[in-house]
Amino acid sequence: MNSLERQLAQELAAWEGRGLTRREQALDGRVDFVTNDYLGLSQEADVVAAAQAAVREYGAGGRSARLLAGGSNLDREVERAAATWLGSEAGLLFPSGYQANLGLISALIGPEDLVVSDALNHASLIDGARLSRARVEVHEHLDANHLEHLLQRGPCARRRWVLVEGVYSMDGDAPDLALWARICARHRASLIVDEAHSAGLLGPSGAGAWAASDADPAVLAARVVTGGKALGAMGAVVVGSETLREQLLQRARSFMFSTAVAPAVAGALLAGIQKARAASQDRNRALGLARDLAAALELPPPAAAIVPIPAGSVDRAMQASATLQEQGLDVRAVRPPTVAPGSERLRVVCHSHNEPKDLRQLVATLKGLNLPAASHSQRTVQSASPLVVLGTDTDVGKTVVCAALLHAASKEGAARYWKPVQSGPDCDTRTVRQLSEGQVLDPGDTFDLPASPHEAAAAEDRILDLERLDQKLDQYLATAGTLIIEPAGGVQVPLTDDCLQIDWLARRRLPCVLVARSGLGTLNHTLLTLESLERRNMRPRALILVGPTHASNRSTLARLSGLQVLEMPHFERLDLQALEAWAATQDLSGFLPASRVGAK
C-alpha cells in the first residue's frame, strides 16, 4: 500500500469511527419509504413502454453532446413538454439535476454578481454558486429577514441572484415564494427555483411550488425540474425564456461538454411529464399519506411528501433505520455531512403506491422507538448557531471581540464560548469569562508553551487529537443557542505537523468573521488572509477592525473585500459595560443569529 492509499485508508477509518460511512443498499423487497419516486412512475407501464420504444427507434446511447449531433428528436419534445407544463417559453434538457444547476448558475452568474443562497440548499446549487466566482452570501434557512438583510449589502453588484428550492429534500419544508419574489423585486434580484421535490406534487397539474404560489413572475429567472423524482426517469430540464435557453446553449459547460441523454431517458421523460400532469389522484394520495404520518407523530405538516423525524444522534438514527428495515419498511437515516451535526434524522418519503396498512405499521414502530419528540414549532432537534471568530494574527483582539459577541448573543438567548486549543498561560477562556455573562466552556485542549499548537504539543511530547476536537465540536453543535468559537492565533497556524488550522476549519464549513488590526500593515495581512479563506470557501460574514479608527483602511478593506466592516476601539477601561456599549452601537444582524431580533 503506497502513501496515498494509507492516507485514504486512515481517512475512511476515521469516517467509519464517527458513524458516517454509507453503503449501497437496494430496496430488496421492502416497502419503499425512501426513494423519490413519489408517483410510482418509474414502474408505470406506459413510461416503461415509452423508453423501450425510444430505444427501438433511436438506439441505446446519446452518442455525443447535443451540439455535435448527439441525442434524439425526443430531446426537443421533452423540452417543449416541460416548458408547456410549467408555463414557460422554452426548456433545455440536461443529463442530471446536478449538471442542470451547475450549468445554469455558472452560465448566468459571474464574479461581479451577488448570490444569496439558503443555508440548506442542495449541493448542486452551492457548487454552482462557487463555480460562478460570484460573491456568495448564505442566509439562515427560510429566514426572509436575513435574506433581505444580505441583499441590502450588495447594492454595487452587477446583478443579484437568489437561489431557493421549492421543497427542501431533507427538511420537507418550503419557502413562501410570493414573499421571496417581493423581496427580490425590492432589491432588483432575480430568482432561481429548484423544483426537484415539488414538481409533480404541488401546484395546478403538479407544475410545482412556483405554480402553486401567486408570486410575481417578473423576478423569476429559471426553474429546474428533475426527471429522477416524480417523473420516474432521470435528467433535468431548465425552463425559462427563449433567451435563457439560448444563453445556456452557448455557455452552460455541463450541457455543452456532456453526452446527450440516452433516447430511453428522453422517451421515459416525455411519458412521465404527460402522466404527472394528469396524476391528480396519485398526487393527492402521496401528499395525504405524508400529512397523516406527520399528524400521527405530532410533527409539523410537511410541504409535500417528505417527513423528517428527529433521531437525536447518529447511533439512534442508524438503529432506528435498522429496526424498520428488519420489519420490511425501508426508511433511511440521514447523518452529517448531509445534515448538520445534532439534526440527525429519519427521512420518510410517502408515495402514491404506499398502503395505509404500511403507514400504520410505520407509525406504530416509530412510536415504540422513543425517538425525540418534535413540536409544531420545531421540525428537527435543536442545534447551535455557530460563529467562528478568526484572526489575521495572534493578539489582534479576537478574545475581546468574542466576549462582546458572546454578551450580545446572550441577551437574546442561550449563548456559549469555546476555544478548541489554548496554548500558554494567558488563558483566553478566563478573559472571556470575566468580560461576559454568557456561558464559557472549558478549552478543548490546553498546552503550557505559548506557541503554535503543533509546537506547544511537541514540547509536551504530545500530538493534538483532532478527532477528539471534532467530537467535542459535534457535541456542542448539538445544543441549541449561539456558539462562539475562537481558534488559536491566525488562520494558518499549524495544529499538527500535517494540518493547518484553516484546513481543520474548512472541513466544518462553519460561518465566520475575521478580526484584524486597524492600523498600518493591516491591508496586506487582511487581504492575504481573506484570499486564503476564499480559496477554501470560507468567506467571512464580516470584518472587525480593532484599534484606533483608521478611515482609509476601513474604506479600502470594505471596497476590496465587499464585506461589512465594523470597528472596535482599544477601550480605556475594558469591562462588561464597555463591551455592552460597543455592541449596542453595532449592526450584528448579518452574522450573529441570536442578535438579529435586536439589530440596530
Question: What topology emerges from the helices and strands here?
Answer:
Blueprint: H1 3-17, E1 31-32, H2 45-58, H3 73-86, E2 90-94, H4 97-108, E3 114-118, H5 123-132, E4 135-139, H6 144-152, E5 160-165, H7 177-186, E6 189-194, H8 209-212, E7 220-226, E8 236-240, H9 242-251, H10 253-256, H11 263-277, H12 280-296, E9 306-310, H13 314-326, E10 329-330, E11 332-334, E12 345-349, H14 356-368, E13 384-391, H15 398-410, E14 415-418, E15 421-423, H16 428-435, E16 439-440, E17 445-447, H17 453-459, H18 466-477, E18 481-485, H19 501-508, E19 512-517, H20 522-535, E20 542-546, H21 551-561, E21 564-568, H22 576-584
Parallel strand pairs: 1-10, 3-4, 3-5, 5-6, 6-7, 13-18, 13-19, 14-16, 14-18, 15-17, 19-20, 20-21
Antiparallel strand pairs: 2-8, 7-8, 9-12, 11-12
Helix pairs in contact: 2-11, 3-11, 4-5, 4-9, 6-7, 15-16, 15-22, 20-21
